[in-house]
Design brief:
This protein is about 90% helix and about 0% strand. The protein is mainly α. Helix 2 packs parallel to helix 4.
Amino acid sequence: MRVATPCGLQEATAIATVRNIMLNQMGIGQRLALAFGLLLALLCAMAAMAAWQVRNLANDTRYFSDNIVPSHETGKKVLFSLGQEQRQQLLHLMATSDEEMNGIERSMAKLRQDVNQELATYEKELASDDADRRLLAQAREAVNAYYQTFEKVRPPVEAGAGEPRQAAASHRADARRGRKGL
């Protein structure tokens, strides 16, 4: 009794039979050469894929070092200068003489100039597309909002109407919120 088999199974069996006949007709040297050739082809494919991945890694590293790291360095410098300015602002609130206040104001003006210079350098050398320019505009707005926190508490203290310690505490809290925008 003969059992019906699907058409695809008969074709697969026929292909396997032809392959076995071909391999049986090949000598051991030819079989080894075929196996070595297949192995060599796989090795070349792996080497090509590895070279492609290394090129992608090199491009990603170059992008990171050219774009991301300088942006973070600029941000770090700006935040450091703003921290130094906050220190000067707190000293200004606690200052007791006009001469002391004037010296602190000169120091604060220098720090603001440093921040503006860093942002201008970033815009000229590092801002590469509209997204960078939009983020730079947001950073400038945050810096200006930060500067305004001091201008709210400064006049009453300078006029002698405000308590310096309360103004300093209020300014610290406002400045902390302002720096979060950077």
